[in-house]
Hints:
Layout: E1 14-23, E2 26-34, E3 37-41, E4 44-46, H1 53-65, E5 67-81, E6 88-101, E7 110-117, H2 118-123, H3 132-141, E8 146-147
Parallel strand pairs: 1-6
Antiparallel strand pairs: 1-2, 1-4, 2-3, 2-7, 5-6, 5-8
Amino acid sequence: xxxxxxxxxxxxxxxxxxxxxxxxxxxxxxxxxxxxxxxxxxxxxxxxxxxxxxxxxxxxxxxxxxxxxxxxxxxxxxxxxxxxxxxxxxxxxxxxxxxxxxxxxxxxxxxxxxxxxxxxxxxxxxxxxxxxxxxxxxxxxxxxxxxxxxxxxxxxxxxx
Length: 160
């Protein structure tokens, strides 16, 4: 985030995306190193300048896991305060279908991608990157699936 010019303090939340990718009873997760410790999360990251939300979800998923996905639904929009940096985060969580895997180098900090059941994810407890990991999976499991058409995209040259 760019600093505000002096005398023009503009507050902005961090906008992030996350992707729930399921395969039967298993969910695609990433094991990552955050501040020297191992944490588990869905494929997730920040929205880039000029990027639409669904493109960000596809990009983050392939960069962190090697899996190409088709984004199918919006599952949740969550607002919370990050314990990592203390800033407010606005997180858009999508559900996606895995299309194929490419054995490629993963983003810096990502140790590996792995498939875990809901029970295995719950057993990770404090190793989860945020409480949004479990809550978004639980929303998906309870049927939260909004159509992508509810997301407006007026960015030039960016498909939804």
